[in-house]
């Protein structure tokens, strides 16, 4: 009736089976999410508290050739609350050899992959107003619900040596046309991170972020691990060609402290954009073991002139990896 | 060329692998389905006999924490003949600990899960006019082909102790709004069943069935196992706020008898609704072993004033589980 | 974090697990594809060279009954560059017993399955102008991106005995209607192939190809294996009821030669249709072991009066099976 599969790399010990395999991994999360004035301050029929959930499944297929080069491909299906169905995204192909990994298609971008940048996240949904507020391309998790263009195509590379990781990515918003149109350009990202376990630093450059010509953004971050916890600072400089986020910078200070199964988290993020306030959050995780945890957070956004993001949001729920 | 695979729980014996796994299970079925006057008595270009088929795949991912709590998530893809493609439905999340299982999202409802209620089904498609004829929410198997609303969200719980199962479910047709609109309400279901192997009883209450305010329905059933077979009686009381099924009750008497690999089945169902006749069916299964069977049935529906459901339908085909 | 997995048939050694299993197989490929005057000679904003890619995943579920009959079902998800998402196609069901395999639903057709017919293909995308140029039904790989009709239903059978394979297929473009409409008919295919390892022959008949009434097509092919390579000739006779491909024949001569990890390939195909030239191609594969290869080709199409297919196309990339 049920069959399953499963398991752990130990199963693939047999030599003949080692060449190719298919794995399914991912995570599930669900809980309560509160957003003050969800849908805007004028919304009258909107619930502020909902059950927010996500199920992510990655299907990874790989083949290792005789000389040790590994070819791989990934499809992902991701359901989020509010979706009426789930289907697969677009494919990511990869070639790996020792420390070098090259990706083609729906690639992981440098800006999205570099270390430290998401370290202020908290809650079971791993969110933070301290994350970079610019628009940028990233691996696209959703299928037809997400609305990616069919021509979106990237090439990316990561290289790891000793404690250093180097990231490069190039994304063409539409590989089928010669002229992308006015104001549209390929996004190019370069990044690097380094850590000796105690001190970590990371930096990145993103040119024409999200394909908007001349939207050039910069990131530098550093963190210190003092054994039971971490403190870190991320600095972003956004240069918008026109309108939108505008020419601004953002600095996020964060820290966490672990005792036993509990981790406390906090951050404060300042965005020097007109009419935007300082955002902050506090949260806690409780580890349930085996990749599962209970998490919660209370966060307060930057706010803006239109009345959005200015209230409080809170979440409490569970996340489990598989 | 082909790789993945599969297996049996024995594979998960290793301690480190036990925490998380992903399984694929489901069934396939195909055969001939005859429906007299398919498409209505006025249809002239409709085939009464078709190849009717279904393929159902469940992907279940689970993680068991250190203290024995199991978190799980399911996606299903289901193809039925006539579909032009197949995609995943919406996710169901669960938390289990000993006899208690709590679900969130696309949940199994109490009315749909209680014992005995589907016991008059027959044929390779497991159909019966003796099933409950009211509308009600159930686990939604289909993705975009099925047309579920994105806001549909439930919470359900089952508790099993000794020979008793208790079921509770709550479904909000749209969790994102405060006011569901006129005539729409959350569906609440409560049910229980008990069996000592010889005698089984089951009962259920469904309030605002399928989200139609004040459509309150009731079920009670009992069955007796005499060794080589079973006889049972299911009674349904439907209370429709206005129109539709109308205020009516339904009683279904069914039985089956097994000798060797063959099981014979029969039922008769009476629905005391104006212009509706008594429905009945006879069928047989032949077990092929290992979860596969050949099945067939001939059934006659209730009929109605509009000329629907009044003819004969028959099916013969195979079903196999995996 | 990652779990599932994998394996090899050795895992299913346990008797109780042997009955049912689910496997995932498929292939990935990506590389550069050049098409002269892509989009037509008048297109001005079209890139001739793109990254062309495909990821194909087959999910196969099977159950073997006590007497050795195997029931199976397949769903496939296939992503091709340009797709904005990926979903599953329609299901194929099968019953197998010794040399006989019967399929229902989205079946493999005789014309598409017979040996030799695709042997002139080359490049990492396995393409050839020497393939049959008529329209015909085949197993449909794509879901909603592909646009299959929901009523499309086939029945097919293959029988293998000694060195002979026999193929039969019947496809109803819409099983739900009695009258398919003017000019539409069920496609019926019959084919056979035989090989003793040195000499191979194949032949096929396809009546009302692709459901176009009286589009009857014929194929005969032969090949000779001289140890380090093969030469072969495929002959097609197309009889179009009206318009389209018109009444024409096509002959394809091909060969390949292997030394070490390298295979060289060439073909020339002549299509005696007005305004169509002779097509040809040369290509090479370099085996990377374990089902992976680097391949490239340069091909020149038939050309036509409208200026399509008349230029050169080339591809170079990698394909890996899993």
Description of the structure:
Three copies of one chain form a homotrimer. With 322 residues, chain A is mainly β. Chain A has a single domain, classed as Porin. Chain A is built from one helix and 16 strands. A 16-stranded antiparallel barrel of chain A has the order 1-2-3-4-5-6-7-8-9-10-11-12-13-14-15-16. The radius of gyration of chain A is 21 Å and the shape is globular. Residues 1-17 of chain A have low confidence and may be disordered. At the A-C interface, strand 1, strand 2 and strand 3 of A face strand 1, strand 2 and strand 16 of C.
Largest interface: A-C, 63 and 48 residues
Low-confidence stretches of chain A: 1-17
Spell out the helices and strands of chain A N to C.
EEEEEHEEEEEEEEEEE
Tell me the number of structural domains of chain A.
Answer: 1
- Rounded to an integer in angstroms, the radius of gyration calculated over CA atoms of chain A is 21 Å
* CATH-level-4 superfamily name of chain A: Porin
- Might you state the CATH topology name of chain A? Porin
Question: Shape of chain A from CA axes?
Answer: globular
Strand content of the residues of chain A, in percent?
over 45%
- Give the strand tally of chain A: 16
């Amino acid at each position: 009736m049920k069959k399953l599969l499963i398991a752990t790399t130990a199963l693939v010990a047999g030599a003949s089976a080692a060449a190719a395999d298919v794995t399914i991994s991912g995570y599930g999360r669900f809980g309560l999410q509160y957003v003050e004035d969800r849908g805007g301050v004028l919304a009258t029929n909107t619930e502020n508290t909902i059950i927010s959930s996500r199920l992510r499944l990655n299907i990874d297929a790989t083949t290792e050739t005789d000389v040790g080069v590994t070819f791989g491909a990934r499809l992902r299906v991701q359901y989020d609350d509010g979706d009426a169905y789930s289907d697969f995204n677009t494919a990511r192909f990869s070639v790996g050899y020792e420390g070098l990994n090259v990706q083609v298609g729906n690639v992981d971008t440098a800006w999205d992959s570099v270390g430290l940048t998401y370290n202020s996240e908290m809650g079971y949904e791993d969110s933070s107003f301290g994350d970079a507020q610019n628009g940028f391309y990233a691996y696209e998790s959703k299928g037809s619900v997400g609305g990616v263009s069919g021509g979106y195509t990237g090439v990316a590379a990561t290289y790891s040596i000793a404690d250093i990781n180097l990231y490069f990515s190039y994304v063409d918003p539409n590989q089928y046309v010669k002229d992308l149109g006015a104001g549209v350009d390929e996004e190019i990202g370069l990044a690097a991170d380094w850590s000796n376990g105690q001190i970590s630093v990371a930096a990145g450059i993103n040119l024409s972020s999200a394909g908007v010509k001349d939207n050039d953004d910069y990131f530098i971050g550093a963190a210190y691990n003092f054994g039971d916890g971490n403190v870190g600072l991320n600095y972003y400089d956004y240069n918008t060609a026109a309108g939108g986020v505008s020419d601004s910078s953002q600095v996020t200070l964060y820290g966490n402290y672990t005792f036993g199964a509990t981790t406390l988290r906090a951050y404060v993020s300042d965005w020097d954009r007109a009419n935007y306030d300082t955002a902050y959050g506090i949260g806690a995780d409780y580890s349930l073991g085996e990749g599962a945890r209970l998490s919660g957070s209370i966060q307060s956004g930057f706010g803006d002139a239109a009345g959005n993001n200015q209230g409080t949001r809170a979440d409490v729920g569970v996340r489990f990896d598989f």
